[in-house]
Amino acid sequence: MIIPVLLSGGSGTRLWPLSRSVHPKQFLPLTEEQTMLQQTSLRLSGLDQVSAPIVVCNEAHRFMVAEQLRLIEQEPAAIILEPVGRNTAPAVALAALQAIQHDKDATLLVLPADHIITNAAALREAITTLLPYVQLGKMATFGIVPTKPETGYGYIQKGAPLSEQSDGQRTPVFTINSFVEKPDAATAQHYLDSGDYYWNSGMFMFPAARYLQELEHHEPAIVRWCQKSLLKAQLDLDFVRIDAESFAHCTNISLDYAVMEKVTDAMMIPLDAGWSDVGSWSSLWETGNKDHENNVVRGDILTCNVTNSYLHSTSRLVGAVGIDSLIVVETSDAVLVAHRDRAQDIKEIVHQLNEQQRPEAQRPPRVSRPWGWYETIDMAERFQVKHITVKPGASLSLQLHHHRAEHWVIVKGTARIIRDHEILTLTENQSTYIPLGTKHRLENPGKIPLELIEIQSGSYLGEDDIVRFDDHYGR
Asked: What residues in the chain have per-residue pLDDT under 50?
């Protein structure tokens, strides 16, 4: 049985201001209606012998993972929560240990959750081609057929063919001569011209037991600490909450460095499937559907004499006149303007935001919660206004605030409100007041989303001014 392992731990700072540490790129619908996590899971549909996925994610993102998979009607085999990032080798070790508890012969298909693949059928065909080799114990990776002399990727040099392409049948499989680091421009051009080098995709396929065997040989401490992490793990709703202290001892190392570059019988299959790791806004321009002026446009955009640009609006009309080769991205709290050739430097803006401790680096305007979401629509000293949406059947925690009072105005749906010892039921155009220090809870007992406007007032309006007494989501 093939068990997909979806790695969802990235931060995507080069896609600011849409991607932020609290809500990174894998949870965004950057190219289609589905988010990148959803696309990664859905592109395996139609493959035989594929089970429910194991997702490894940042602990802070657990509810987004669960909700996004629920929306596409996919129930994961496990959602493993990383208390701290330790790169892909430990993350996949956790998944492998989890998998062999249920199937000692499990095959892992390791997929980053933040990649674009426009031709999912080509990926499925490559997986089918590799499966007989992997079932014999081999470790394999997917080498992306390069389209340009890219200096931002590592490369894989192919070796001898293990199979031949014939009569239009499947792509041949090769041994691997070497993994090479990101090259300079001249070396990248040489790689492209030779036809022997492929981009390192970071996607892998191997038996779970073989991976653990190799990791035990090359990085035994990782296996030991991951085993301890899972032995002390706690089940929390749908999540596997591993032991933080044990996992923190793991070496921070990628799967490539820890294992694949040291395996003597590793294999590679070329993959030409419209792949991109979406490492910058320029890569979204390259892979996007372009208009007659070579622009990629998403959202409410008007243009005049604009060429070769990427324009993205989320909350308002954006007009652009007489520009070329620019990136313009608008959110309700930030606007990015950059030259396409300097897209990789956007991380420097994020660095400045973090140095100044500005919230625009961390939180998006719309913040997801397990019960729904909220968006700040206005704020100043001593007051803040939020638009809150609560999913049907969902409930906020029973809580109080030491520094703020709240006014709630219902604009859609039905609210059940606990306010100290009172229970209120409010509908559209009705309102209530939650005084400072009052124990309260907001619930949606209805069948449609509950929407309300919350007006906060007080001396401190931070999200950490919450004392929880009861919470359905274990926060």
From this structure: 166-167
